[in-house]
Amino acid sequence: MESGFEEKDFLACCGSTKFAKEMALAAPFASLEQAVAAATDIWFNKVDVSAWLQAFSAHPQIGDSAPSSQSHHQTTSAQWSKGEQSTALATATGSSLQELSEWNARYRQKFGFIFIICASGRSTDEILAELKNRYPNRPIVEFEIAAQEQMKVTELRLKKLFTSKAKVSSTSDQYPAVFAKKVEEDRVNIIGGHLTANSENTSGKTSEVRTRTRPPITTHVLDVSRGSPAAGIEVFLEKWEGTQPHPSFGVTYTSGWKILGSSTTDNDGRSGQLLSIVDAVDPGIYRISFNTGKYCPSGFFPYVSIVFEIRESQKREHFHVPLLLSPFSFSTYRGS
């Protein structure tokens, strides 16, 4: 069943007008999985920082109610927000709500936007603990985490959107009642927005493989010292194809690494395509290297290389390997 959704429907899922327009252009979608894949690609690769901030600002703070005068998409979004926060509100006390309000204000003063978290199924205490845990983060790190949490919310709401359409449709066999129940119970797991095929199949049916809309390995570089994306950094992606199963620590190799692709980060700090868009990436050891010395000649690192392994069970997942860089330090993590 193809989706017949409009821009306003996608705006209820994510409060960025740019995101909603891109989703409307990409529609119709033959399935929820296809819509989620497109949404993830648009959110992480096509919209800009201002779109992220607009989406953040569309949320009420945890524990707050939405304004009474609202448009259609705002009403839908507010209803969904209320449902997503139901566990938190049900477990709240006067003192916990007061403490949450104080920490929300402190967080907003530091980062410039409200605390974003996929609150579905979480108690007030859990949300407050996560807020306190994330508060010490550097702004550029927290901005990325907030974007990942927003994508979790968006996917959850896309599921609700498709479920509501299925309820209206007379062809209800495509969306059984068990699926509608599962939508309300599941926490969406993206963290980084992974398009994994974690479907729990009905017995006797073959699982459906999602088609990628971006390469399986991507990266972007954030200049922590400037608080902005790092443009113009050369990036190389390699795969280990030596005689040994994997490279050994402390051993210098003159061969074994095969270059798969190279690129230069754009104004948003993102690299171009380093690898072909394939449904399944080859399992193995990969190395992604950044020419940081050319970008920051006075810095401590002439270049930075990150080595990671993709296992057989992960070959359909997406691997986002960001670099958080300053002249005298760097960090990374597996994102989405």
Automatic annotation (TrEMBL):
<keyword id="KW-0456">Lyase</keyword>
<dbReference type="InterPro" id="IPR000895">
    <property type="entry name" value="Transthyretin/HIU_hydrolase"/>
</dbReference>
<feature type="compositionally biased region" description="Low complexity">
    <location>
        <begin position="65"/>
        <end position="81"/>
    </location>
</feature>
<comment type="pathway">
    <text>Purine metabolism; urate degradation; (S)-allantoin from urate: step 3/3.</text>
</comment>
<dbReference type="GO" id="GO:0019628">
    <property type="term" value="P:urate catabolic process"/>
</dbReference>
<feature type="binding site">
    <location>
        <position position="270"/>
    </location>
    <ligand>
        <name>substrate</name>
    </ligand>
</feature>
<dbReference type="GO" id="GO:0006144">
    <property type="term" value="P:purine nucleobase metabolic process"/>
</dbReference>
<dbReference type="GO" id="GO:0033971">
    <property type="term" value="F:hydroxyisourate hydrolase activity"/>
</dbReference>
<dbReference type="InterPro" id="IPR036817">
    <property type="entry name" value="Transthyretin/HIU_hydrolase_sf"/>
</dbReference>
<keyword id="KW-0210">Decarboxylase</keyword>
<dbReference type="InterPro" id="IPR023418">
    <property type="entry name" value="Thyroxine_BS"/>
</dbReference>
<dbReference type="GO" id="GO:0005777">
    <property type="term" value="C:peroxisome"/>
</dbReference>
<dbReference type="InterPro" id="IPR023419">
    <property type="entry name" value="Transthyretin_CS"/>
</dbReference>
<dbReference type="InterPro" id="IPR023416">
    <property type="entry name" value="Transthyretin/HIU_hydrolase_d"/>
</dbReference>
<dbReference type="InterPro" id="IPR036778">
    <property type="entry name" value="OHCU_decarboxylase_sf"/>
</dbReference>
<dbReference type="InterPro" id="IPR018020">
    <property type="entry name" value="OHCU_decarboxylase"/>
</dbReference>
<feature type="domain" description="Transthyretin/hydroxyisourate hydrolase">
    <location>
        <begin position="212"/>
        <end position="335"/>
    </location>
</feature>
<feature type="region of interest" description="Disordered">
    <location>
        <begin position="63"/>
        <end position="85"/>
    </location>
</feature>
<keyword id="KW-0659">Purine metabolism</keyword>
<protein>
    <recommendedName>
        <fullName>Transthyretin/hydroxyisourate hydrolase domain-containing protein</fullName>
    </recommendedName>
</protein>
<dbReference type="Pfam" id="PF09349">
    <property type="entry name" value="OHCU_decarbox"/>
</dbReference>
<feature type="binding site">
    <location>
        <position position="333"/>
    </location>
    <ligand>
        <name>substrate</name>
    </ligand>
</feature>
<feature type="binding site">
    <location>
        <position position="220"/>
    </location>
    <ligand>
        <name>substrate</name>
    </ligand>
</feature>
<dbReference type="GO" id="GO:0051997">
    <property type="term" value="F:2-oxo-4-hydroxy-4-carboxy-5-ureidoimidazoline decarboxylase activity"/>
</dbReference>
<dbReference type="Pfam" id="PF00576">
    <property type="entry name" value="Transthyretin"/>
</dbReference>
<keyword id="KW-0378">Hydrolase</keyword>
<dbReference type="InterPro" id="IPR014306">
    <property type="entry name" value="Hydroxyisourate_hydrolase"/>
</dbReference>
